[in-house]
Amino acid sequence: MIDILLKYMSDFTSLSGDEQRAISESLRIDEYKKGKYLLRQGEFSAIKCYFVLKGCVRQFFIDESGKEVTTNFFTEEQAIPIINEKTQGELSKYSLVCIEDCILVVGDIDSENTMFNQYPQLEMMIRKMMEINLGEMQEQLGEFISSSPEERYKTVLRQCPQLIDRVPQHQLASYLGITPESLSRIKKRIKKSNF
């Protein structure tokens, strides 16, 4: 698992091997069972962030009618930022739950600031990773808004095919903005057309 982090440090920094090992040894890595909530809608937002080494985390909220709306999935090598100075001390508008057993790097402001002071390149690496994640999310959002449900499903097939088998179908349907029945019909059409 640490190999994933070492790869990022090698790709985004010029930290020495010893510095990389020292950083990886000082990181907090926790295991979470399937069903564990990292954050619940209506709780005070934690000043934390996570990086997925293994597993899948779902982000969702419950709307005014009581319906769960899935807004994102985070899998291996993806950051889950919760740190938000603007919303610090406010109630969270969404929940994060592990939908598989997960191994996550857990960060908080104090430990990150200490490490950033000790290893300035680490802050640059995190910033580059967040810029990449933000760019990908902006692209996905633009594509999802302007595409049909079938096109959205095809995008998931192309970009994140592992989600199809890892995520419960009703959650995937919610993420795509359709009903589970519509998702079944789309899957059948695509299977017939050999996408």
TrEMBL record:
Keywords: Activator. Residues 11-43 form the Cyclic nucleotide-binding domain. It comes from Lysinibacillus odysseyi 34hs-1 = NBRC 100172. CDD domains: CAP_ED (cd00038). Pfam families: cNMP_binding. PROSITE patterns: CNMP_BINDING_3 (PS50042). Coiled coil: none annotated. SUPFAM superfamilies: cAMP-binding domain-like. This is Cyclic nucleotide-binding protein. InterPro entries: cNMP-bd_dom, cNMP-bd_dom_sf, RmlC-like_jellyroll.
